[in-house]
């Protein structure tokens, strides 16, 4: 049995928005909106006049760059772990053959 989406209100750049989400995702949505609001406010406070759309696009691009960096770091970390596991497995095999 799935739960019904419920309305969630968030405020981004002093404007109220309403979304629907699963109850168990509510806190994640609220936190994501808070982070987006913070990032958009930082961009707006640079003093350059920008439309809300451009501020949102800049924030989205910034988040995308951060996500790409995190994925690259995670991929590198996973490759290092996989490599270490292969080395350890080979060492165990060698030890068992001796």
Description:
By secondary structure, the chain is of the alpha+beta class. The protein is 66% helix and 14% strand. The protein is built from two helices and two strands, in the order ββαα. It has helices spanning 26-44, 52-97; strands spanning 6-12, 15-21. A two-stranded antiparallel ribbon has the order 1-2. It is elongated and about 70 Å long.
Spatial sequence of strands, sheet with the most strands: 1-2
List low-confidence stretches: none
Radius of gyration: 22 Å
Tell me roughly what share of residues is in helical segments: 55-70%
Question: What is the 3D form?
Answer: elongated
Mean pLDDT comes to 94
Record the SSE blueprint:
Elements: E1 6-12, E2 15-21, H1 26-44, H2 52-97
Antiparallel strand pairs: 1-2
Helix pairs in contact: 1-2
Descriptors:
two-stranded antiparallel ribbon; alpha+beta; 98 residues; 2 strands
Summary?
Helix content is 66%, strand content 14%.
């Amino acid at each position: 049995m799935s739960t019904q989406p419920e309305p969630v209100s968030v405020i981004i750049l002093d404007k109220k928005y309403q979304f629907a989400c699963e109850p168990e995702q509510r806190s994640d949505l609220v936190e994501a909106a808070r982070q987006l609001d913070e990032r958009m406010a930082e961009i707006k406070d640079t003093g350059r006049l920008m439309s809300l759309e451009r501020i949102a696009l800049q924030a989205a691009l910034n988040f995308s760059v951060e996500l790409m960096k995190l994925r690259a770091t995670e991929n590198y970390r996973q490759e290092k772990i996989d490599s270490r596991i292969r080395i350890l497995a080979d060492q165990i095999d060698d030890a068992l053959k001796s």
